[in-house]
Amino acid sequence: MKFLLSDKNVFEYLISQGICTQEEQSLSEIELKPAKNFNLLVSFPDGHKILVKQERINREGKTLNEFADEWQVHKFFQLFPEISHLRSSLSEAIHFDSENSIIVFNYLQEYRDLLDFYHSESFFPPQISRLIGTTLASIHRLTINRQDYQEFFQKNKIGVDLETHDLSRGLERISPAVFGLLPADGLKFFTLYQRYDHLGRAIADLSNAFNACCFTHNDLKLNNILLSLNWEAAIFKESYSDEKIIRFIDWEQGNWGDPANDLGTVIASYLQIWLHSMVTSRTIPIEDSLRLAAIPLQSLQPCIAALVSAYLAQFPEILEYRPNFFELVIQFAGLALIRSIQATLQHQRTFGNAGICILQVAKNLLCRPQASMVTVFGMEVSDLIPIGLRTSQYPGGIYKTPTSK
Question: What are the percentages of helix, strand and coil residues in the chain, rounded to 5?
Fold first, then answer.
């Protein structure tokens, strides 16, 4: 990387790339946006804004090439006209500089972070999660089993190849050599995690069941989803198309992957709203902490149920491709919760009573997925399946689509 972006030289850079003019510079504003990468929000006099991001280098003086991978995602939706209409559900990348790892987006100021919306409003309308399910299913359905799409990512992606992805990464049994590299809470987590042999086996089985068959986001948490500021008018008055109510952003890990992983990650993000509202203590049993959470699971179950039901309505064939789809989704939700614990350990180096509660929930989802379904969805799984797809054979049978004979 030859050029380091700063608030002092960003306009010089943008002008050199033809993104703005010298005249706009004197009337524009710059704001530093805290993030894992270096982000600058540039506001122009005509009201529009752009987000300029430069990937940070690691200790070896290199980047992870995440922005290069994200740029390939945007090129993918431009290259194939039959899926180009899905671009309205994504972020808007307008420029990429591979030499300096800089990517520029139109800043979608008419949207807000969905997780921030939930935290600020404490309001969980199922209509929003229904749109998430429909949009996600559309992406999966239109790309599933397309060899030309798969070859595009095999040729152009630089990051992790999810087709050979090891889901147990970072969870291997620790050796004495790495004890000194972990904080005390990290050792506490691994001690508790490795106490449950069946948890490691469940993750290993999930790795074996991983089926990369369509294009996936691979990090679809609620803070990677944007909600239109006019969502109520759009939903209840149908003032404009559904695709513009929500947008999926941060496609750095977008790749050929398993659709159950995407849906499970969204569900885990809803469960975290519940889990992070717990009051925990050494003197309070885990069951009581879960039951007495400030945001009860019952408040979120309609959202999760609407998410899954809408996904199935849009992509009913998934139950034919993957008869055990529900079990996999629940297990991937459990894995996402464990990944959230790992992220907390990495950034905050803590693993307290709240982490223990989250690990217990994750263990149940991974090791007892069928028994966990009613708890997560708030209803029987058969009630989530569109009437035209229901059979008496759930959970072991093959589901037929309405067009099947």
Answer: 55, 10, 35
Residue 378's nearest CA partner among 274, 277, 284, 282 is 274
Tell me 172's DSSP state.
Answer: S
Listed in order, the ranges of the chain carrying CATH 3.30.200 are 10-106
pTM, to two decimals: 0.90
Q: Which residues belong to CATH 3.90.1200.10 in the chain?
A: 111-389
Give pLDDT tens digits for 95-127.
Answer: 999 999 999 999 999 999 999 999 999 999 999
* 362/171 Cα distance (integer angstroms): 14
**Are 326 and 396 within 8 A, CB to CB?**
no
Band of the pLDDT at 181, cuts 50, 70, 90? low
Residue range 111-389 forms a domain whose CATH class is alpha beta
Amino acid at 241: S
Residue 54 pairs in a beta bridge with 38, 102
Phi and psi, residue 54, nearest 5°: -120, 130
Per the document, the length of the chain is: 405
What is the model's pLDDT at position 374?
Answer: 95
Query: CATH: 2.40.128, 2.30.130, 3.30.450, 3.30.200. Which one for 10-106?
Result: 3.30.200
Residue 22 to residues 103, 106, 107, 206, 261, Cα–Cα distance (Å): 20, 19, 20, 55, 46
Q: What angle do CA 146, 321, 269 make, to 5 degrees?
A: 90
Q: Tell me if 52 sits within 8 A of 14, measured CB to CB.
A: yes
Question: CB atoms < 10 A from the CB of 84, how many?
Answer: 12
pLDDT in tens, 196-246: 778 989 999 999 999 999 999 999 999 999 999 999 888 876 544 545 899
Closest CA to 270 of 235, 222, 302: 222
* Integer CA distances (angstroms), 377 to 154, 269, 324, 393, in order: 36, 14, 16, 19
The pLDDT of 29-33, averaged and rounded, is 95
